[in-house]
Amino acid sequence: MPIYEYGCSDCGSVTSVLVRSAGGRARKPACAKCGGKNIQRIISRFAFHQSLQSKLEQLDPKYDKMIDASNPDLSFDNLVKKYQLDKPITKSRDD
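User: That's the sequence. What structure does it adopt?
Assistant: Structure tokens below.
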């Protein structure tokens, strides 16, 4: 069941109408504010939600460097060195 929006040419208000029948001819509603019949269907605004991945892809490439510069202890290079992530993982004899 779609929701259509109509703009009134007489008073300028916008009215939203829930159309219950998908098929057939829907009758043109009246303006909710002034009751006028001189209304036109308008294109509604819509919204969409971006995934976290798409938000990260849109970040400025300089963003990572700015974050690293503001807090050098948490920079990627320092974390790699601190936790020795650049070295291969070796199995201990206890495993």
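The chain has three helices and three strands.
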